[in-house]
Write a structure and sequence with these properties.
Oligomer: heterodimer
Helix content of chain A: under 10%
Number of strands of chain B: 11
Helix content of chain B: under 10%
Distance between the termini of chain B: 41 Å
Order of helices and strands of chain B: EEEEEEEEEEE
Order of helices and strands of chain A: EEEEEEEEEEE
Radius of gyration of chain B: 13 Å
Number of strands of chain A: 11
Structural class of chain B: mainly beta
Radius of gyration of chain A: 13 Å
Strand content of chain A: over 45%
Largest sheet of chain A: 7 strands, mixed
Chain lengths: 111, 113
C-alpha cells in the first residue's frame, strides 16, 4: 500500500497570508490527525478527523482549521499567518484504534 | 490533559552498548504507548508500541516496558548500531490510540562508532 502523502512538501508564505495543506491517507484509513512540529514545542496535536467529522481538537487558535472529504483526504488551513506558524506540519492516518502512520510533512516558512 | 515527560533529551552511547529512554505520563486513562524514530529530515516512523494490558514487548533489538502503577514506560535498544542514531519520541494516548497522541519532547540518540 502507498504510504501517507502530503502536498506541498515546502511552502513559503508571508505574514497575513493564508495557506492550505493537503493529506492523503493510506488506502482504507478513515482517521486523519494533524500535528505541528517545531524545535521549541515538539510535536503538538492540532486536530483529528474521522469520517468527515472532527473528533478531537488541540489547543490551537481558530486560525487553524481543517476538514476531511468523503474519500478520507484531509486539508488543513491556516489563516492570517504569523511568524510563529513556521513549522513542519505532519499528518498521520490510522485504522480504528490502531497505529498512526505519518506522512513526510509540509515544511511551512512564514516570512 | 495528558502530559508526557521524556528523559534524557540527549544520549550518546558507544556502538554495541545499550540505550534506555524513559517516559512518564500523567493520565491514568492512557492505555496506548507508541515509540517513534525520526531521522533528520524524515517522517516519524513507528518502531514499537505497547498497550496497557501488556507489561513488556520485544522486537529484535528493541523492547518497551510499561509500569502502569508508576505511570512510566521505557524504550530499550540493545547492541546499538550507527543507524540507530536519530531522535526518538514516546507518546501516550487513551482509547487504544483512537484519541490524540501526546508526545514527549524527544531524545536525540547518537551512536559513537
Amino acid at each position: 500500500k502507498a504510504g501517507v502523502t502530503q502536498t506541498p512538501r515546502y511552502l513559503i508564505k508571508t505574514r497575513g497570508q493564508q495557506v492550505t495543506l493537503s493529506c492523503s491517507p493510506i488506502s482504507g484509513h478513515r482517521s486523519v490527525s494533524w500535528y505541528q512540529q517545531t524545535p521549541g514545542q515538539g510535536l503538538q496535536f492540532l486536530f483529528e478527523y474521522f469520517s468527515e467529522t472532527q473528533r478531537n481538537k488541540g489547543n490551537f487558535p481558530g486560525r487553524f482549521s481543517g476538514r476531511q472529504f468523503s474519500n478520507s483526504r484531509s486539508e488543513m488551513n491556516v489563516s492570517t499567518l504569523e511568524l510563529g506558524d513556521s513549522a513542519l506540519y505532519l499528518c498521520a492516518s490510522s485504522l480504528f484504534q490502531d497505529t498512526q502512520y505519518f506522512g513526510p510533512g509540509t515544511r511551512l516558512t512564514v516570512l | 490533559g495528558e502530559n508526557v515527560e521524556q528523559h534524557p533529551s540527549t544520549l550518546s552511547v558507544q556502538e554495541g552498548d545499550s540505550a534506555v529512554i524513559k517516559c512518564t505520563y500523567s493520565d491514568s486513562a492512557s492505555n496506548y504507548f507508541p515509540w517513534y524514530k525520526q531521522e533528520l529530515g524524515k517522517r516519524p516512523q513507528l518502531i514499537i508500541d505497547i498497550r496497557s494490558n501488556v507489561g513488556e514487548k520485544k522486537d529484535q533489538r528493541i523492547a518497551v516496558t510499561l509500569n502502569k502503577t508508576a505511570k512510566h514506560f521505557s524504550l530499550h535498544i540493545t547492541e546499538t548500531q550507527p543507524e540507530d542514531s536519530a531522535v526518538y519520541f514516546c507518546a501516550a494516548s487513551t482509547n487504544f490510540g483512537n484519541e490524540k497522541l501526546t508526545f514527549g519532547t524527544g531524545t536525540r540518540l547518537t551512536i559513537i562508532p
